[in-house]
Amino acid sequence: MKARIFSLGDDLEKIISDINNASWDASNQIHGYSESALRNYLSMEGVIFLSCYSSGGNDEKLLGISSSRIEMKPYNNDCWLYIDEIDVCMDQRQKGVGKFIMQKLLQLAREHNCKEVWLGAESENHAANMLYNSMNPDEVSEIIGYSYRIKI
């Protein structure tokens, strides 16, 4: 497996094609990525869009993706990494892809001098929770999330 971090100078059309043609299920909430949306995302400061591919030369295959961003606390200079999503293709689950992506994100957090990494997972997402627990977190919280849809 190999990880790749995308930036505005990369071939975004290829990653968009790879994402839109990969095997996702409804829980991934991946609905037709577009180049303009990814370009807008990548133009924001501190974002990390990481993809995981098989290392099969010309036959490389997308295995998973993640989106995260480096944040700073407003009351001190501590940086932290917020992991928004880790999505593993349906046909690649239970093969170490999620763990590989997490390890790469933790490595990136260290490289950026982040003091902590934070991510959330739905309680019913047993596979994700087993993965995150297996990586020896410092804390596991029972957090209730709230979502507000804004009518425009």
How many DSSP helices? 4
Any idea what the CATH architecture is? Answer: 3-Layer(aba) Sandwich
Task: Kindly estimate the percentage of residues that lie in beta strands according to DSSP.
Answer: 25-35%
- Could you tell me the CATH topology label: Aminopeptidase
Which structural class do the helices and strands define? alpha+beta
Biggest sheet statistics: 5 strands, mixed
Please give the radius of gyration in angstroms: 16 Å
Gross morphology: globular
CATH class: Alpha Beta
Helix content: 25-40%
Strand tally, please? 5
Poorly predicted runs:
none
**N-C termini distance:** 42 Å
Count of distinct structural domains: 1
Q: Reading side by side through the largest sheet, how are the strands ordered?
A: 1-2-3-4-5
H/E order of the elements? Answer: EHHEEEHEH
Mean pLDDT: 92
Q: CATH homologous superfamily, by name?
A: Gcn5-related N-acetyltransferase (GNAT)
Structure, explained:
The structure is a single chain. This protein is of the alpha+beta class and 152 residues long. It has a single domain, classed as Aminopeptidase (3-Layer(aba) Sandwich), CATH 3.40.630. The chain contains four helices and five strands. A five-stranded mixed sheet has the order 1-2-3-4-5, with helices on both faces. Strand 4, helix 3 and strand 5 form a beta-alpha-beta unit. It is globular and about 45 Å long. It starts with a strand and ends in an 18-residue tail after the last helix. 18% of the residues are buried.
